[in-house]
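Appendix C: a fully annotated inverse folding record. The material below is reproduced so that readers can follow the format used throughout the book. The structure is listed first as tokens, followed by the designed sequence.
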């Protein structure tokens, strides 16, 4: 049987990379998307291939619709199908609301929210060929809670969760399931951009009922569940994986 194919945006490092590798372990051919580091993407491709599947890396600026078109053209040319889209790539400006410029806002919304819409529009025709598909986006608690300097990113993640619901209803009849995973604090490279990183980590450990902060594998495990047959009736939901901290905030 022809192998299934998955695209994970922002998969040259961090949670995206771990997600791509986990998919490879489950027999998927991979499209490794990256925006900057070709070296990191190539290393991810090598590790994926060590699991006996195929992988290609494609560079694309998700703020540019033409680049998104080129990304999906590469997928069509190489594989001719797509079964899973994990919308993981994210960017954003960490500033108070009163200091945000139009450029800050547009960049954050385009990469984090608009790209989901454009990628879904390109992914669906490739998924329809197979009779089913899965789209899973990564969100964060900033979509439903206020976090310091997180205005632009938080609003963009709220848009991702809302768009997830709309896409889920529209695409359900095509047997395409759309959901999101919202994580609590995860100690990844992205957190290093927060000036109060140490304070965030200390507070999270102290206040998480489960007794520890969220690990990357907690999120990847949830993504794997959402693209499994066992989750076939979960539609348009945002699954919060935070050890219970949002219940105490």
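Designed amino acids, in order:
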């Amino acid at each position: 049987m022809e192998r299934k194919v998955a695209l994970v945006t922002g998969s040259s490092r961090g949670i995206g990379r771990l997600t791509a590798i986990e998919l490879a372990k489950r027999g998927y051919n991979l499209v490794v998307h990256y925006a900057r580091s070709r070296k990191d993407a190539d290393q991810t491709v090598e590790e994926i291939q060590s699991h006996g599947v195929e992988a290609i890396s494609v560079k694309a600026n998700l703020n540019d619709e033409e680049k998104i078109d080129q990304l999906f053209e590469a997928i069509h040319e190489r594989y001719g199908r797509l079964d899973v889209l994990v919308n993981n790539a994210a960017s954003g400006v960490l500033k108070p609301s009163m200091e945000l410029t139009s450029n800050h806002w547009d960049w954050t919304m385009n990469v984090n929210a608009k790209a989901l819409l454009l990628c879904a529009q390109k992914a669906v025709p490739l998924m329809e060929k197979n009779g089913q598909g899965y789209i899973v986006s990564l969100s964060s608690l900033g979509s439903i809670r206020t976090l310091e300097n997180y205005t632009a990113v938080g609003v963009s993640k709220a848009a991702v969760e809302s768009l997830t619901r709309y896409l889920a209803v529209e695409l359900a009849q095509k047997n395409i399931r759309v959901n999101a995973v919202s994580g609590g604090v995860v100690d990844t490279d992205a957190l290093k951009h927060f000036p109060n990183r140490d304070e965030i980590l200390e507070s999270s450990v102290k206040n998480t009922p489960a007794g520890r902060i969220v690990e990357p594998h907690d999120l990847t495990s949830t993504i794997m569940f959402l693209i499994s047959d066992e989750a076939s009736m979960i539609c348009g939901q945002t699954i919060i994986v935070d050890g219970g901290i949002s219940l105490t905030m």
